[in-house]
Amino acid sequence: MDDSVTIRLNKLKITLFFLAAIPLIAGGVEFALTEINPYSPLTRIRFAPELASLILVSSGLLGIILGVLMGALMINKLFSSKPALIIDDEGVVDNASSLSIRRILWKNIEKIEIDLIVRYIAINVDNPNEYIHKWTKPISRMLDGINQIVSGSPIMIDFDVIKCDYRALHKLLQDRLEEYKSEINRRERQ
Length: 190
Description:
Elements lengths: L4 E3 L3 H23 L15 H30 L6 E3 L3 E4 L7 E4 L3 E7 L4 E6 L2 H5 L5 H14 L3 E4 L7 H24 L1
Antiparallel strand pairs: 1-2, 2-3, 3-4, 5-6, 6-7
Helix pairs in contact: 1-2
């Protein structure tokens, strides 16, 4: 196989994602602090103001939590000097996804798919639970588990944060996977 290929993070898009976290937090604060006034034409909720207030506060807190998590993740990526992906003879080193810094071995990869709706490249592995349980932090395991449910794989590479066309990246990953498989087949025949 060839030498390793390094793909960098797209710092401009990461900055834009960070800036998008600010209104999410601000909106969350606004929702969390909103009081339901049954006489206001804007919040005409006469049937259950306590329930409406609970929904608004809960939505606000969720917005704040998501905004802070997104902002912290983007700040971490923004000041990181590590490449987003390293593709070499052993597999792929993923520093692009939120749960990064892991090596995905070619021997574990079954297929590589593009999800244009969620805007990720999903790397399906034969042992997803092994990748999920590598994490010591419960939140990391939970996020990998959510990835597993959403895409069928715990490994999802967000192609919005990398400096590479997603089609070219997908082709590169597919080609390298095929090279690996053909090399293994050649060795087995000998």
